[in-house]
């Protein structure tokens, strides 16, 4: 993201961007209100748009808006336009398709068997290929989102039952997905065969819930039941929960970035506390990259648990050397270069009283392009830091993601273009070090990384992509997507 091209040049502009969050409930008299609360808890997974589709026993009702959940789904009037006892919702950060209203999910279509709404977390690595084939065969697409492909595939199936059509559609797609879908009788959930994207089953007053993270269950007082397994489809109706496993069994490969960055710290992902894992990563980082220093300073907010772990393992005091202003929006207008450079201070400012004259260990979760990192380091020096030792609680990101995380092309990833010394010089730190891949696995509770098959999807560090990348046929996916958007 070019400094001169963006109006949101703050400490979030050079981060990995969240994927999406999904939530659904069946059989609750306040379904839409419950979904809205769940989406509030999942807001960290996408801040560009939100939507809810509800079914009242006769009709489907849809409300989709650009912006934050609280901007649109906190009023009684909006919820009143979503009557019914079953509903699904979605918060979005676009990884394919533009940020326009027609791309906001859940997407809805009237099929032969009735209405069907679907919300998707993840990214299809053959979505563009399938879309082109569908359009050639006469399909009319209303969005530029890969999720619409799923609707078309379900609609074109000739299987007699809806769930059979749904399974047939999923057999044709590749990549990462956690889906929640709503019909006139059922709430449906599905997770890709490798379980790259998360999905959990919960229960509230005897009604079943599907959500991206357990924190969405906590906010409404729901009980966590279990994780949806990789390759599993669950069908929730008045009769209960039915589990289907239509795909050949595979070893699970969940995304490692759920633990490093994406999931909320208070979530439990596959039985592991995200907060504790991040502290463990910081502790491993301290053991691998020890340095003499006076204070450990986190880059808020995502660097805080790792910095706590680093401080505890190293014995160096933990201090809040950067203070975050939580009341600044994401769209501060920065008309000139000088104002853009000041804009970083709107969200974060140095706490000089704990930095001046000190040797600091600055802890962050990742480096992407590096433009933000050099500003943070310079902020520490401007606040009087004597030495700045930059420590990253994940390995260097050397490869882009195609499963729902918005990453730059490889040519713009700092670690893909420079060696460690080159990166250190670029960000301006006295020293720079990353957690090793084996350190990540130790933090996750593995004594060593499995040499035959990794336990997680860690391709951003290794280039080991776990699925076919069908859409990568000569052009980067983002280039193909932009051309697709222009033609729509």
TL;DR of this structure?
This protein has helices at 31-41, 69-72, 76-80, 127-136, 147-156, 162-170, 215-218, 257-262, 274-288, 304-314, 337-347, 352-355, 371-382, 414-417, 420-427, 437-443, 459-462, 477-487; strands at 20-26, 49-55, 60-66, 86-92, 107-111, 114-124, 175-182, 187-191, 200-204, 207-211, 223-227, 233-237, 240-244, 268-269, 272-273, 295-298, 322-324, 348-350, 359-364, 387-392, 431-434. The chain is of the alpha+beta class. The strands form 5 sheets. Strands 3-2-4-1-10-9-11 form a 7-stranded antiparallel β-sheet. Strands 5-6-7-8-12-13 form a 6-stranded antiparallel β-sheet, covered by helices on one side.
Largest sheet: 7 strands, antiparallel
DSSP strand tally:
21
Average pLDDT for all residues = 89
Helical amount among residues, as a percent range? 25-40%
Strand arrangement within the widest β-sheet reads 3-2-4-1-10-9-11
Describe the protein's architecture and organization.
The protein is α+β, with helices and mostly antiparallel strands and 488 residues long. The chain has two domains: 7-253, Aminohydrolase, N-terminal nucleophile (Ntn) domain (Glutamine Phosphoribosylpyrophosphate, subunit 1, domain 1, 4-Layer Sandwich), CATH 3.60.20; 274-462, Rossmann fold, CATH 3.40.50. The chain has helices at 31-41, 69-72, 76-80, 127-136, 147-156, 162-170, 215-218, 257-262, 274-288, 304-314, 337-347, 352-355, 371-382, 414-417, 420-427, 437-443, 459-462, 477-487; strands at residues 20-26, 49-55, 60-66, 86-92, 107-111, 114-124, 175-182, 187-191, 200-204, 207-211, 223-227, 233-237, 240-244, 268-269, 272-273, 295-298, 322-324, 348-350, 359-364, 387-392, 431-434. The strands form five sheets. It has a seven-stranded antiparallel β-sheet. Strands 5-6-7-8-12-13 form a six-stranded antiparallel β-sheet, with helices on one face. It has a four-stranded parallel β-sheet with strand order 16-19-20-21, sandwiched between helices. The radius of gyration is 23 Å and the shape is globular. The model is unreliable at 1-12, 330-335 and 476-488 (pLDDT under 50).
């Amino acid at each position: 993201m070019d400094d001169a091209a963006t109006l949101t040049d703050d400490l979030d502009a050079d981060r990995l961007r969240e994927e999406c969050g999904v939530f659904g409930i069946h059989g609750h008299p306040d379904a839409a209100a419950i979904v809205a609360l769940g989406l509030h808890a999942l807001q960290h997974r996408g801040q560009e748009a939100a939507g809810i589709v509800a079914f009242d026993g006769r009709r489907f009702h849809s409300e989709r808006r650009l912006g934050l959940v609280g901007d649109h789904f906190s009023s009684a009037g909006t919820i009143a336009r979503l009557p019914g006892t079953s509903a699904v919702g979605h918060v979005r950060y676009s990884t394919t398709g533009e940020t326009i209203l027609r791309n906001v999910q859940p997407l809805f279509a009237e099929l032969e068997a009735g209405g069907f709404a679907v919300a998707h977390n993840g990214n299809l690595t053959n979505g563009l290929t399938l879309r082109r084939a569908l359009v050639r065969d006469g399909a009319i697409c209303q969005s530029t989102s890969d999720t619409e492909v799923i609707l078309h595939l379900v609609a074109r199936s000739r299987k007699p039952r809806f769930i059979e059509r749904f399974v047939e559609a999923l057999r044709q797609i590749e990549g990462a997905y956690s889906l929640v879908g709503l019909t006139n009788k059922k709430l449906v959930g599905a997770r890709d065969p490798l379980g790259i994207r998360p999905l959990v089953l919960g229960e509230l007053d005897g009604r079943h819930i599907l959500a991206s993270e357990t924190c969405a269950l906590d906010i409404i007082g729901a009980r966590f039941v279990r994780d949806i397994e990789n390759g599993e489809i669950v069908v929730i109706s008045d009769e209960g929960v039915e589990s289907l496993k239509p795909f050949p069994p595979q070893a699970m490969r969940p995304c490692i970035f759920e633990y490093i960055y994406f999931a909320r710290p208070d979530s439990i992902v596959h039985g592991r506390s995200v907060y504790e894992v991040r502290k463990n990563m910081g502790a491993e980082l301290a053991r691998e990259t020890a340095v003499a220093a006076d204070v450990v300073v986190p880059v808020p907010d995502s660097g805080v648990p790792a910095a706590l772990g680093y401080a505890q393992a190293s014995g160096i005091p933990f201090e809040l050397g950067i203070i975050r202003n939580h009341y600044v929006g994401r769209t501060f207008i920065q008309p000139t270069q000088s104002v853009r450079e000041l804009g970083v201070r709107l969200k974060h400012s140095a706490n000089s009283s704990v930095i001046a004259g000190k040797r600091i260990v600055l802890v962050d979760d990742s480096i992407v392009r590096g433009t933000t990192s050099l500003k943070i380091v310079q902020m520490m020096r401007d606040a009087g830091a004597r030495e700045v030792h930059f420590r990253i609680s994940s390995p260097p990101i050397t490869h882009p993601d195609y499963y729902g995380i918005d990453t730059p092309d490889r040519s713009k990833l700092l670690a893909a273009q420079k060696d460690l010394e080159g990166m250190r010089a670029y960000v301006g730190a006295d020293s720079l070090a990353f957690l090793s891949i084996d350190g990540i696995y130790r933090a996750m509770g593995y004594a060593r990384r499995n040499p035959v098959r990794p336990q997680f999807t860690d391709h951003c560090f290794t280039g080991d992509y776990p699925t076919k990348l069908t859409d990568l046929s000569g052009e980067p996916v983002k280039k193909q997507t932009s051309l697709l958007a222009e033609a729509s």
